[in-house]
Design brief:
Layout: H1 4-9, H2 11-21, H3 26-61, H4 64-101, E1 118-123, H5 129-132, H6 139-145, E2 149-150, H7 151-158, E3 164-165, H8 168-186, E4 190-193, E5 197-198, H9 200-205, E6 217-219, E7 224-226, H10 231-237, E8 241-243, E9 250-259, E10 278-288, H11 293-310, E11 315-319, E12 331-339, E13 344-353, H12 357-362, E14 364-367, E15 373-375, E16 377-385, H13 388-395, E17 403-404, E18 418-419
Parallel strand pairs: 4-9, 8-14
Antiparallel strand pairs: 1-11, 2-3, 5-7, 6-7, 9-10, 10-16, 11-12, 12-13, 13-16, 14-15, 17-18
Helix pairs in contact: 3-4, 6-13
Length: about 425
């Protein structure tokens, strides 16, 4: 949740963030009112509790009618204390629910919605297939010819938006993910194979419920959630702990299967494996000091760009607009690769600075040099995922339907240089 002190001391900052996101700024005032009522209830409770303790000492010394009167007042006070305590608890619960509805405060992101992003840079030139004398095929046509993608049997077994990666398709995904893990380890990340089922407190703590609940698979019988990213498990990894960040950020690279319902996405990217219900991903996740988060965010972006270079893909980097940020992100950069057959850029990676938002919900702190504790910052970023296969096949295809393997991935495919169509 957002910092309550920020809400009290700088409510205009939070209102401006709400406006930039397209959310209701009036929620700030509702939360402030709840906070004022909570503090008033607590003050009443503490005052009555102090009087109750003082009377208790007087009762012990009193006798006769005085003692009877004091006992009568003590009984009345007990009921009042109980009532004020209930009022304080109710006000605190109301405040918590309101604070959970306010997303993270935007830091530097452009205002607006999904189409109001800012292009920060473009790297590489899209191929001119017309000058090469052939019409590019889309990733599914290429994948089927290579014996790499089978969506028909995926649908037969599991339904729409499922698939099999077969032969070189399976090997290509493993090559991508292993290259991502190797790069992460070289940069000081600890590789992790993470749980894909998490408890409600963990899912809620990372900000994936609320407005985004429809995108998440919920197993009602077990009251567990399937994750859409290993960010969720890694954010909960240090819940209720005090970390030592004296040697720098803690960095983890989580490899996991990921599941998304894609609610409300009917009709968009339904062909092939662009928008699917299950995929694999290597996700960077880290904990750092709040004052280091902005610089760490830039490092995450640079590591994502290094992976895109290994895949040999033309891409652009966008600064995501506030209204398109997730609940937990204060700022997010996306890397989008060029998709020749659709003549558009397709998101392959995103990296978010979540500042102290997730860690405050999950109670992750660090001990400072003076011995006190404070909330840490968290960050996340994608290094590789199944969707990359789409861009690799389309950008590296040849006229005969074969696909050249990017040089950066060849060591992970036994030196294989070209993927050839099957008979």
């Amino acid at each position: 949740m957002i910092d309550l002190r920020l809400l009290r001391d700088n409510p205009d900052v939070v209102r401006a963030s709400q406006t930039a996101r397209g959310d209701d700024p009036a929620l700030v005032d509702v939360a402030l009112d709840a906070d004022a009522r909570r503090r008033s209830s607590l003050a009443d409770f503490e005052s009555l509790r102090a009087e109750q303790k003082a009377l208790g000492k007087q009762v012990a010394k009193a006798q006769g009618e005085e003692k009877h009167q004091l006992l009568t007042r003590t009984k009345q006070l007990a009921e009042e204390v109980k009532s004020r305590q209930a009022d304080a608890h109710a006000a605190e619960k109301e405040l918590d629910e309101l604070l959970y509805q306010i997303p993270n405060v935007v830091e530097g992101a452009p205002p607006g919605g999904e189409d109001d992003y800012v292009v920060l840079k473009t790297v590489g030139e899209p191929r001119d297939f017309e000058s090469e004398g052939f019409e590019p095929r889309d990733h599914l046509a290429l994948g089927e010819a290579l014996g790499a993608i089978d969506t028909a049997r995926g649908a037969k077994v599991s339904g729409a938006r499922f698939y099999f990666l077969t032969g070189v398709g399976a090997r290509l995904e493993l090559a991508l993910l292993n290259a991502a893990v190797d790069q992460a380890v070289a940069e000081g990340f600890t590789p992790m194979i993470t749980p894909t089922l998490v408890k409600p407190d963990t899912m809620r703590g990372t900000g994936f419920l609320g407005k985004h609940a429809e995108e998440v698979y919920h197993l009602e019988r077990d009251d567990m959630y399937l994750v859409g990213t290993s960010e969720v498990a890694l954010a909960g990894y240090h819940a209720d702990e005090i970390l030592d960040l004296s040697d720098g950020p803690l960095r983890y690279a989580g490899w996991s299967a990921c599941y998304r319902r894609e609610a409300g996405a009917a009709g968009r990217d339904t062909r092939g494996i662009i928008r699917v219900h299950q995929f694999h991903k290597v996700e960077m996740f880290g904990y750092c000091r709040p004052e280091d988060a902005e610089a760490e965010h830039q490092r995450y972006l640079a590591w994502e760009e290094a992976m895109l270079a290994k895949a040999g893909l033309p891409y652009r980097v966008i600064d995501t607009a506030a209204g398109d940020l997730g609940t937990s992100a204060a700022r997010k950069f996306d890397c989008e690769a060029w998709l020749p057959t659709q003549q558009r850029y397709l998101e392959l990676t995103s990296t978010s600075n979540c500042t102290t938002f997730q860690a405050r919900r999950l109670n992750v702190r660090e001990r400072t040099a003076d011995g006190t504790t404070r909330t840490v910052a968290t960050l996340n970023g994608t290094l590789a995922t199944t969707r990359w296969i789409v861009a690799i096949l389309e950008n590296h295809q040849q006229a005969d339907g074969s696909v050249r393997v990017p040089e950066g991935l060849r060591p992970y495919l036994g030196g294989l240089e070209v993927l050839e169509p099957v008979a």
